[in-house]
Backbone:
């Protein structure tokens, strides 16, 4: 069964460092998303991406964040200068073109900022 | 801003019993979805109910939606130990088709099914 894959599963970084989280969405999907989940808190929307551009972003997704689909298969989230409060589980999701509304999530990348 | 709020926050039942989780939200929606998350794992879509639907079934799952009360319930019948997980409702507003609407999530209900 097709699945969304994310790497790395866990990354530990120092505050101020750049981090790139990678995702390979399901191959025929066209809509891509990043969500995050701080431990014990709600899942929060970060950004949606369609047709090679950002469709919508939340207030969390400030200038320190960027997304890219560099090669038609990968979908990356970059945090330029990490802060302690960026520590969270980051989930990538993709959606097909049908009107089902169902998102397919990866297993997540746990980011720990020290 | 719209929110999904589930209750109870935690539920512990015996295998074979039914589990009911509720979700309330604040603004009008296009659809409401339920997801499951095993500890430390990704989110798995369970079922979607549209704003013009009142009830939907999928296997042992039954979802209801009351748009007048802005609430939904998820019923898991004949629960199994493998159903132990966190369950989240998520709401989508606006037109979905061709429109990349975000999902707004609740805090989730942590379900423990004891063998």
Residues:
């Amino acid at each position: 069964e097709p699945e969304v894959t994310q790497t790395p599963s866990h990354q530990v970084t120092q505050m101020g460092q750049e981090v790139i989280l990678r995702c390979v969405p399901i191959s025929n999907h066209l809509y891509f998303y990043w969500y995050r989940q701080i431990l014990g808190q709600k899942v929060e929307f970060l950004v949606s991406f369609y047709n090679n551009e950002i469709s919508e972003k939340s207030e969390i997704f400030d200038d320190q964040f960027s997304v890219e689909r560099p090669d038609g298969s990968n979908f990356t989230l970059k945090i330029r200068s990490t802060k302690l409060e960026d520590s969270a589980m980051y989930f990538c999701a993709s959606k097909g073109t049908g009107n089902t509304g169902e998102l397919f999530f990866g297993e997540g990348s746990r980011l720990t900022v020290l | 801003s719209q929110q999904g709020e589930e209750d109870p926050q935690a539920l512990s039942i015996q295998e074979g019993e039914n589990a009911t989780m509720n979700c309330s939200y604040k603004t009008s929606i296009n659809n409401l979805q339920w997801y499951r998350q095993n500890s430390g794992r990704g989110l798995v879509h369970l079922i979607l109910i549209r704003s013009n639907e009142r009830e939907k079934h999928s296997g042992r799952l039954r979802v209801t939606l009351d748009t007048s009360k802005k609430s939904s319930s998820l019923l898991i019948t004949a629960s199994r130990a493998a159903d132990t997980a966190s369950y989240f409702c998520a709401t989508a507003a606006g037109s979905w088709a061709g429109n990349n609407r975000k999902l707004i999530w609740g805090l989730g209900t942590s379900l423990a099914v004891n063998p």
